[in-house]
Amino acid sequence: MQVSSLNEVKIYSLSAGRSLPEWLSDRKKRALQKKDVDIRRRIELIQDFEMPTVSTKIKVSRDGQYIMAVGTYKPRVRCFDTYQLSQKFERCLDSEVVTFEILSDDYSKIVFLQCGRFVEFHSQHGHYYKTRIPKFGRDFSYHYPSCDLYFVGASSEVYRLNLEQGRFLNSLQTEASESNVCDINPVHFLFAMGTAEGKVECWDPRTRNRVGLLDCALSSVTADTEIEGLPSISALKFDGALNMAVGTSTGQVLLYDLRSSNPLIVKDHHYGLPIKSIQFQHQLDLIISADSRIIKMWNKDTGKIFTSMEPEHDINDVCLYPNSGMLMTANEAPKMNIYYIPVLGPAPKWCSFLDNLTEELEENPESTVYDDYKFVTRKDLENLGLAHLIGSSLLRAYMHGFFMDIRLYHKAKMMANPFAYEEYRREKIRQKIEETRAQRVQLKKLPKVNKELALKLIEEEGEEQQFTKKRKQKNLPSLLKDDRFKVMFENPDFQVDEQSEEFRLLNPLVSKISEKRKRKLKILEELEAQGQEEEEEPEGKASDAETSESSDDEKGWVEEVRKQRKLLRQEEKLKRQERLKEDQQTLLKPQFFEIKEGEEFRSFKDSAKKQKLMKKTLEDRLKLEEKLGTLNVSDTTVGSKQATFKLKKSEQQRKQQEAEKRHRQERKTLRRSASHLKSRRGRGRLFH
Q: Which pick of 130, 212, 215, 628 has the fewest CB atoms within 10 Å?
């Protein structure tokens, strides 16, 4: 039994006990029940209270003796006898059940509305009669004074089937395009139906006229709600003569007084899922509303949450056992859940022993689904040295690993690591010793990494504290206590390298300043080794020794910078000399390269240029070719790009083109000279 608590309301899940693996045979299950005390003591309130795959609707007969549920697959109805705590009968149906109603006090008269527009009647012995309605039905209600069944569905009409005469009566014409739910008031028998447009129409069955219209879609939208579409009505329930609760497809529950068109209260589930079921609990004035994810119990006067439940699987229907604190749900899973909430009321008379059990039970959550089996991965098997068992009967493959017997797992773990208990014991002893040490007088413990930096921060923190005390300011947080800089004093990769070039140039006075801290470091290490308390001033040291060195001496600072630069230059010269020696000692060996067919060897520079060019991106290569004049990119009038390029020519073609160019130039010069001579001769004749 699993126990949960919300708002100090304890909820006992009677169906969340230990379950056995499905692949075990019945014989092994019986053997486990005989051997294991926990399995034998588990609470199975009603034997085999489940469906093969999914349960869709669940109801209780008026006398409280029978619980009926429908589900799939195959479509079926199961009846459970609470007096016998077992299944009474099971009947398979032709199609899935949308909803059903128990007309009699026991299971002798049942009506099923099925998916294929069928309405099926069952009596005590089984199937009795079957008929069809013109349109697909979604819900129906039974009017007891006239023995009429009112069917609503994918139509604007409400179909009436009279069970006394055995025929259909004139249907009710509504303004809605489709209807989702309906209900009849148990006091004055007012018929109400919820439409797909988010309205509720109320009809008087005596006159067959509409007497009221509520626009719930408009009322459900408040300042706090966010909706994406038009809310439709998904649930409807009457409470007494004057109250009615309406659930919308966007996750709101509206409580109405029939004398007013405005809702008394609007409760939002904040999940955006359609409301599946609404129940009233009169002892504590609660409303139990459920969508596919959560069941909420809240006060109908104030809207304050009383408690809530979130089952593991999606919810299809909720049923409250009359005059008790028991709640049953139909889920998208084989097992139907049973909850017992002692605050809502006592346990039913057929399971009165629950009151005694719940007083003694304590919260004990289950860590694994199968307690007798341990789930291990392939890596776990390799660590335990049991990889050779893969494929044997000792391991059962499941998802990304295997199930193995818990006893075999413990034995293998003890053999693989026999000193696990000793290590655990040492760790516990060490923790106890550290707890006792924390009560003693604490010494200044410095971190292992960047001790000098930590000491500097401690000194600066002390100076800042004195300064802030004088000026009455707030202390800033220390870097040593800040989690963001915790790794800097734990990871050796963050150790400050004082021999690096940057450190020596940026911190020229670090050698002088660090002398004080090094002295303090030695003193602290001696105190930690001897286990003594830290003294403010060690013996043999004057109090004025630390203030003797002046940090404001500019000459010393300049000299220190010059020394550091000289040292860096000397180190660079030494490194260069070592590189020259290494280069002289290395012998260069000739390397031969093979030229591919169809290529000419020009020079190593051309090949290097070609390799560099091939490494560049297409954009860079196009830009380079555009600069050289081999490529031209221009915009067209349509908006696209036009590119023209010139093919590269071989050496022989280039020489031939140059010779042709020279020949053309020579011919041009000859022509010019000839024309010049002719013009001169003509002028001479004119003068003569």
A: 628
